[in-house]
Amino acid sequence: MDSMDIDTPDQSKRDVPLRLVLRPVKPLESGVGLPYAPEDWPNPGDTWRWKAGPRVTAKGTFLDRYLYPPKHLPGLTPEILRGSSAFRSRLSLERYVRQAFPQADVRKFFASFSWVIPSAYGMVQTQSIVPVYSSDEDPMHESGSDIVVCKAGNDKCGSLMPPSETEPLPAMPCGICCGEPNFCSDCCCILCCKSVSLEHERYSYVKCEAVVSEGHICGHVAHMSCALRAYMAGTIGGSIGLDAEYYCRRCDAKKDLVPHVNRFLEICQTVQYHGDVEKILNLGICILRGSQRDDAKELLNCIESTVIKLKCGMSLENLWNDDTPTIWSDFSDSGEAKENDTLQSLQDVTPIGPMPFNHEAEMHKHEEEIREVLKALRDAQESEYQIAEAKLRAQKECLSDLYRQLEKEKSELSRRVSGTDEDSLMTNVLKRLDQIRREVTKLKDMEEVAKGFGRTPRGVLEEYFHLRIEE
């Protein structure tokens, strides 16, 4: 979309710009003054800031735009700005102008700049015409023909839902992943770039709501399954150090996942399919497994016990029946009372025979153990590789120095120096050759590490790699 030159209807007045050049902008781009914010209003030198939102209409213009007034203006109460530092709608801005500046010409004010901002990505479906309101038009008129679209083409994107009065702070401007034409931070996983699902109250993904700057949150989302596979969720040791938490790759903030998983039990009570309930609860087990926190351990016990009931054939109707004993109803009970409740619940479920073996829960446990073992093995192999590389390259440099010394001594010998000097030089050359042969043999022994440290002779590891192997 090219820039558009728009003549204003009243060019005889100096306080109205003669032409507005509407430069298309990118999502979440911001700027100062014209053409998308007033200048020299209400006083000379007063400049307003503007910012485009993430959502684009089918006309190729931004549905969301924000206007930041100068801080010294009167009457900028939290009620007017709805807890933010910017005006988010023309209606709220009009109300403010009429209240704070009753003598101002509201139509003239809106005619001095363009409220509509064209998108740099152009039209989505239909031909786009970017209007600039004149003093003869009603700047408060909302076009009912604007169709809200998602950058990723997801018709179920959360950004397409009407904003509520309790909506969180806007997401921060992001020029990295959000700069991609088909990536939407509201509905695309930051790890796999695929759309998240709103099914079952959005249990399957997590949104980072960390405040990263004044008036802005991170706002990026990620599938819980992707985060678990990428070691960015759950309980992970090492430098990240997660304990039933989520680590956002975009802003490096951590989010507690216990409240997120705690909702799973409530969500499951509204799910009608047995398989979906197990899927939701198993995800909760993966998130909480291995946590050292007491609240996470208690919640994990509750979910695992619920899975046992499902495995024993209890119907969903009886599972959530108020008359059926539940172990998640009171987290303040003692551990002994919880254990008794659990045993009683299992006895109610299984009238005959011993308590069933929770195969799936055990498999999840083994899966986590194997993942930790493989991670430790990968780290150990990486460490062994670095040690071997350093020692082998050092041995290569040693041989290189010896070869240079040999060439120098052979060159001196070739000058045919007579007498004692000739014998001395010959002796040096022979000694250097013996030294090179020893170092070459050493290198061959060191190359045994190609089989792996576990299959390398102990003496080689201790003598050449300085690794002491315990019995």
From TrEMBL:
Domain (DUF7615) ranges: 359-464
GO CC terms in record: nucleus
InterPro entries on file: DUF7081 (IPR055508), DUF7615 (IPR056034), Oberon-like_PHD (IPR032881)
Stretches assigned to the DUF7081 domain: 24-119
Name assigned to this protein: Oberon PHD finger domain-containing protein
Pfam families: DUF7081, DUF7615, PHD_Oberon
UniProt entry keywords in alphabetical sequence: Coiled coil, Metal-binding, Nucleus, Zinc, Zinc-finger
A molecular-function term among this protein's GO annotations: zinc ion binding
Organism whose genome encodes this protein: Thlaspi arvense (Field penny-cress)
Localization per record: Nucleus
Main location: nucleus
Residues in coiled coil: 363-446
Top-level lineage group: Eukaryota
Domain Oberon-like PHD finger per the UniProt entry, residue ranges: 153-286
